[in-house]
Design goal:
alpha/beta; binds guanosine-5'-triphosphate; binds magnesium ion
Length: 195
C-alpha cells in the first residue's frame, strides 16, 4: 500500500454524524497519549494531519481522514485519561461504545498499546469488550524507540503471552515507532490485504 493522498474529512461527536457512505474504514484506538495521532501522521507522512499533543486528551472527537480517495482512516478519542472529570470520561466512553456498536464499515480496529507497559486492566477490559462484541482487532505497540535495546526483542511477545493468560485472547500484533517509522510497511500491508 502506497499512500498517495490523505485528507481530513470531518470530526464527529456521534456515529450518526460520521460520513455516510460505503467506504471501508480502519480505526485507531487506545489510551490517551499512547501515540494514535502521531502514528496516523507517520503512516500518511503528513505531519499536520492529526493534531499531536504532549497533553493527553487532545483527540475528543471521531476524526475521519480519507486516504487515496479509497478508504477512511479514523482517529478515535483516547480512553483512560485520569485527569478529567467523571462526566468527560463517561462522554468519551459513550462516543467509543456508540462508534463500535453502530458503525458497520469498520474493517480492522488497531488497538494501540505503549510497548513500555505491562498489561493494564483498562486495556484488557477493552480487549474483552471488543472480543465479546465480535470486533476484529490487532494490537499496534507504540514508542518502540523508547525501549532499551535489551528489551526490544521480548517485550511484545511477553505482553501477548500475559494477555492470553489473563483473558484467553491472542491478537496479532505489530511493533512500531512514529519516530523511526518502524512498523509502517507492516501496518499498511494489513490494510492493503483487507481492502
Ligand atoms: P490523545 O489524542 O490525547 O488521545 O493522544 P494520542 O494517542 O493521539 O497521542 P499523540 O500522538 O498526541 O502523542 C502523545 C505524545 O507521545 C506526544 O508527545 C508524542 O510526541 C509522543 N509520541 C507519540 N508516538 C511516539 C513514538 O513513536 N516515539 C516517541 N518517542 N514518542 C512518541
Ligand atoms: Mg490524538
Amino acid at each position: 500500500m502506497i499512500i498517495k493522498s490523505s485528507n481530513f474529512i470531518k470530526s464527529s461527536s456521534k456515529t450518526i454524524d460520521c460520513p455516510q457512505n460505503n467506504i471501508p474504514e480502519f480505526a485507531f484506538i487506545g489510551r490517551s497519549n499512547v501515540g494514535k495521532s502521531s502514528l496516523i501522521n507517520m503512516l500518511t507522512q503528513n505531519k499536520k494531519l492529526a493534531k499531536i499533543s504532549g497533553n493527553p486528551g487532545k483527540t475528543l472527537l471521531i476524526n475521519h481522514f480519507f486516504i487515496n480517495n479509497n478508504w477512511y482512516l479514523v482517529d478515535l478519542p483516547g480512553y483512560g485519561y485520569a485527569k478529567i472529570s467523571k462526566k468527560e470520561k463517561k462522554k468519551i466512553e459513550s462516543i467509543i461504545v456508540d462508534y463500535f456498536t453502530n458503525r458497520n464499515k469498520i474493517t480492522i480496529t488497531f488497538l494501540l498499546i505503549d510497548i513500555r507497559l505491562n498489561p493494564q486492566q483498562i486495556d484488557t477490559e477493552f480487549m474483552e469488550w471488543l472480543s465479546e462484541n465480535s470486533i476484529n482487532f490487532k494490537i499496534i505497540f507504540t514508542k518502540e524507540d523508547k525501549l532499551k535495546v535489551t528489551q526490544k526483542e521480548k517485550k511484545a511477545e511477553n505482553y501477548i503471552t500475559e494477555i492470553f493468560k489473563k483473558i484467553k485472547i491472542h491478537p496479532e500484533f505489530i511493533v512500531s515507532s512514529s519516530k523511526t517509522k518502524k512498523g509502517r510497511d507492516e501496518i499498511l500491508n494489513f490494510i492493503y490485504t483487507d481492502l
